[in-house]
Amino acid sequence: MVSLSDYLILAAVLFAIGIVGVFLNRKNLVVLLMAIEIILLAVSMNFLAFSHFLWGASGQVFVFFILTVAAAESAIGLAILIVLFRNRHTINVDDLDTLKG
Amino acid sequence: MTFESLIFYCFSALLLWSAAMVVVIRNPIKAVLFLVLAFVSAACLWMLLEAEFLAIVLVLVYVGAVMVLFLFVVMMIDVNLAVLRQGFTDYLVLGGVVAILMVAEIVIAVGPAHFGLHMVPAPAALGAHYSNTRVLGELLYTVYVYPFEIAAVILLVAIVAAIALTMRRRPDTKHQDPAQQVNVRAQDRVRLIKMPSEPKG
Predict the structure, then answer these.
(1) DSSP symbol at B197
(2) For residues B48 and A48, is the Cβ–Cβ distance under 8 A?
(3) What is the pLDDT of residue B132?
(4) Distance from CA of B33 to the nearest CA of A (A)
């Protein structure tokens, strides 16, 4: 039988893959957004696993909201990416230093 | 090994492999396609967790809409991959160490000693009359109706922001201005000129 810890370990490994994606592709903005999607998927997996094993549908409602916010986030992120590419002709994170923060 | 564990391990392996390919593959279009594969495998695992509605929503909304959006954007912009891949191997070691440490820590916390089957027994399978969509809908429209409305507003803000950010008026395109069309008056357009009639020659 599949236990709760199996799902939690799977989500942990998925989360780590997302973090490594942020580390490795720190110049490519598109792959950065995709790594964030992987991280959110791992979090949703945790919510659903607990919801299934602890008998409560509230975890599924939370995953519903995570999906909503993630869709909005990626839509706005891609829109910003398009505007950025139109103005600067690059999506390299290192070139985005206009603000000199 | 039961059939359920067989399905779990197959789709987990597929999910982890495709997620790893997303972050290491060179071509961004292939990365998006691997992300689609990862989402579909995750949807199958969510089916195993008896979250049928969310599994279908993940395929329809995520794979159907968001990933297609990603694909469009990746194909629209042509990026110089050689520049973007600089420093990839430099951070591989650091990222790998961080990932291994993080997974080890989480596994110590959530391993079988704390969340195994003897601590959290597997729930009994739900009957055929049980509807996941119905339960979720009843929760969303009663207990969580206020967050649900806020989620709707967030989506609206996302639509407006995405359109406002990317829309631009190009001067060479032909377009109508409805305000001007409504405000036009007959005397601005038609000019009546009195002319004396010419005598018959």
Answers:
(1) P
(2) no
(3) 86
(4) 11
